[in-house]
Amino acid sequence: MTIEDRALHLLYHLKDQLHEELKNPTGLKKRVKLTDTPLGLTLKYPQDPHFYDTLQDIFYDVIEDEKSDGEFIIAAKDILSDGYLSFDWAAAALRTISELNLKEPQHIYKLLKKVYDLYYKLFKILLPSDFRFGKYYIHWGIIENRPLLRLLFNRALFFSNILQTSTKARQAFEELIHLEPNDPLGVRHILMRLYLKIGFDQEAICLAKRYPSDHGPFLTLGLVLAYFRRNKLQRAFKILQNRYERVKHVIELITKPKIRIPKAIDNLHYYASGSREEALLYYKKQGEAWIKTEGAIKWLKAANKKIKNAQAR
Asked: Are the C-beta atoms of 281 and 261 separated by less than 8 Å?
């Protein structure tokens, strides 16, 4: 079996089991519960705490072709007999499949989307009957909730990075940030990039205002660019001036005529505030929005010069 065959085998069986599970929503809600507590909704499901780790080990052995075909079938059945209701495993497994180096990935991506859609349908069944955003929250601080939030986050990333469907990705990230407004996963930075890409400038402004203490480059320069696009240049300049020390290294980089992005930035997961790595990552993720906005970089260069001259006096 090729790695594509193994991924397809897992996905088809996962899809079939989810279909069966969804036929009996009452039974599902008895096994997996989102319970309302004073701290928000809390996920409860009957897995052993070490179950996820064991399942993950089996999955990587299977998908990385370390077993014979016969062993693969047995191991896959072990995974799928219980694992599909372990949201943490599902989140890791589906993301791993989406990131495999496949020769012809489109069929797998189509199937992967169906599986994500089934998990989303399962999630909606678990919600209280009177659920609405703003009334109920699923907080990351409650450890039991993290598997579900990871699964929803990876679903949104799949729409954004793999399928590149801006509308679906936007909706998925917006729902996630409403479920967990504290946003420990950094959804607001991805949403800002999406809003600027599709021209949702007012939404970009509102998003930045929801997180007034986040002075990092993604929200600050996103807000500045959104105001520039709406011809509110004084507001844009004032924000830039007030937060200049936090973003000046990014401004210096993106106003250069030629910028070379190292390949290592693609695998960057951690960086220091104010570092060149942060500036390069910003440029890679959000630089295109500045480049494609007529006059934006010219204005930013002039604003940068004005602020530096004022500081030098």
From this structure: no
Calpha distance 139→74 (Å, rounded): 37
What tokens appear for 77 in the block? 């059945």
Q: Tens digits of per-residue pLDDT, 126-152?
A: 999 999 998 999 999 998 888 889 999
What is the three-class DSSP state of 37? strand
Radius of gyration of the chain (CA): 22
Q: For residue 43, which phi and psi values (nearest 5 degrees)?
A: -80, 135
Residues 6+ apart with CB under 8 A from 180: 137, 138, 139, 140, 149
CA nearest to 249, candidates 217, 222, 201: 217
Distances (CA, A) of 186 to 118, 211, 214, 218, 305: 25, 11, 11, 10, 31
Q: pTM (2 decimals)?
A: 0.87
- Using DSSP bridges, classify how beta strands 40-44 and 33-37 pair: parallel, antiparallel or unpaired: antiparallel
Distance CA 313, CA 302 (A): 17
In whole angstroms, give the CA distance from residue 133 to residue 254.
Answer: 37
Amino acid at 94: L
Nearest to 51 by CA among 3, 88, 14, 4: 88
